[in-house]
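User: quick one - fold this with zinc ion bound?
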Amino acid sequence: MAVRQKALKKRLLAKKEQLEAQIKTTPTVSVTNVGYGNHMADDATFAYEQTKELSLQQNVKGLLAQVDRALQRFDQGTYGVCVSCGQCIDAARLRAIAYAPLCITCARSQSR
Ligand SMILES: [Zn+2]
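Assistant: Sure. Structure tokens for the protein plus zinc ion:
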């Protein structure tokens, strides 16, 4: 394994740890209590806050899944190869997003 890839793996592992810590410190949100308050406006705000919290948590979990998959690709020896077209992912892109599963061309065509 190239030295450059080792550094990226280290970064991925650090990111994984950070995300896992974030998930642990985020309070578990229960949506079941919404609608039992006295004021409609308060309920709406409360529900909104919870939705925000939930989507944040989902983002963290989604990110963690991406990092996990990138680490799996390390084990399989396919790290740095686009999962869609099989081309090598640009080194600059991997430095920016170490868990990137797609090359810039595929990422662009998918986000369209
Ligand atoms: Zn690609």
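One thing worth noting: The pocket of zinc ion is lined by residues 82, 84-85, 87, 102-103, 105-106 (CB under 6 Å).
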